[in-house]
Amino acid sequence: MPNNGVTRVLVVDDSAYVRKVVTQMLSRSPFLEVVGVARDGREALDQVAELHPDVITCDLIMPNLDGVGFVTEQMARKPLPIVIYTARDLPEEEERKLRGLAESIVLKDARSPERLVDETALFLHRNAAKLPQKQRSMIESLYHGVLEGKKVLLVDDDVRNIFAMTSVLERFKMDVVSAENGRDALNLLEQDKEINIVLMDIMLPTMDGYETIGAIRQIAEFEDLPIIAVTAKAMKGDREKCLAAGASDYISKPVDADQLRSIMALWLRR
After folding, report:
1. Judgement on whether residues 147 and 88 belong to the same structural domain of the protein
2. Are residues 69 and 108 in the same domain?
3. Cα–Cα distance between 42 and 49 in angstroms, integer?
4. CA spacing 20 to 30 A to 134: which of 5, 62, 234, 258?
5. Is residue 2 part of a domain?
6. Structural domain includes residue 106
7. Distance between CA 238 and CA 188 in Å, rounded?
8. What does the buried/exposed string (b/e) look like for 174-186 if buried means 16 or more CB atoms within 10 Å of the residue's CB?
């Protein structure tokens, strides 16, 4: 992350119109700077080597070297956060592979330019704790009041973790309810319709976090409920497993309060 706190973005798409629209949308954020554009994967590889972007937005259908080829080759050279931005229907196996490599997949639709900005900015918010105070204050001002009064369901089998996390969440002026296992979490969600977001520990007895998230997603009214998975430590493949289970996002322990606040605020703002 640059010292000035601005995330440098490379936009990759074979359509000049899409490149223009995406560049305009991303440039509206004070935390994002489009440093270059590329028409295909081969040109993008050269641009990455020359411009050193922090994050890349990339289409899949492109000449010379398509998006899948570009993502695969770039990750082999130097792993970077990549937001896939495509109108293409993805086969399940290909989507699973891409989700293991890229930060996010955004499908082109009427609302997708705005969502693309959110997804790209999410990289910045995950790293908010590393930013200078001025930039952190700017981020906080964007989401001022978003968490206040919201109800969060905290799921963890360790009462010490529940106590510590509750004190953090209450500083954000959030209402906290808790459950020590997946079954109790499901019951609480069915009983309390005012829960706005869930923090789900993965290592739970009997019914682990992956199973619990999957069960929540089976309930129609909770299809869009923000669920942040909390993993014991950041391991390769954790993000893919969490997203495959149905989590909206994930954060690793020990949880950084500023990072947690930024991620929750971004999801609740949506």
Report:
1. no
2. yes
3. 11
4. 234
5. no
6. yes
7. 26
8. bebbbbbbbeebb
Tokens encoding 164: 């510590």
Residue 130: which of 31, 229, 27, 59 has the closest Cα? 31
What is the signed CA dihedral for 224, 230, 231, 233, rounded to 10 degrees? 130
pLDDT at 187: 94
Q: Could you tell me the CATH number of the domain that includes residue 174?
A: 3.40.50.2300
Q: Which residues contact 226 (CB under 8 A, 6 or more apart)?
A: 196, 197, 198, 248, 249, 264, 267, 268, 270
Q: Can the peptide bond before residue 113 be classed as cis, meaning omega within 30 degrees of 0?
A: no
Distance CA 175, CA 182 (A): 20
Helix 257-269 with 159-171: angle, nearest 10 deg: 70
Interatomic CA distance for residues 156 and 179, integer angstroms: 6
Token pair belonging to 212: 């619990």
State residue 4's pLDDT score.
57
Q: Is the residue at 243 inside a domain?
A: yes
**What Rg, from alpha-carbon coordinates, does the chain have?**
19
| Residue 139 to residues 30, 125, 143, 264, Cα–Cα distance (Å) | 9, 8, 7, 13
Domain hosting 200: range is 143-269
- Rounded distance, CA 213 to CA 198, Å? 10
pTM of this structure: 0.61
Residue at token pair 């359509």: 15
* Among the listed residues 258, 199, 190, 196, the one whose alpha carbon sits nearest the alpha carbon of residue 230: 199
Pair 122, 22 in one domain: yes
Q: Does 62 lie in the same domain as 167?
A: no
Residue from 182, 173, 199 nearest 264 by CA: 199
Which parts of the chain fold into alpha helices (H)?
A: 16-27, 41-51, 67-77, 92-101, 112-126, 133-142, 159-171, 182-191, 209-217, 238-245, 257-269
Q: Decide if 39 contacts 14 (C-beta within 8 A).
A: yes
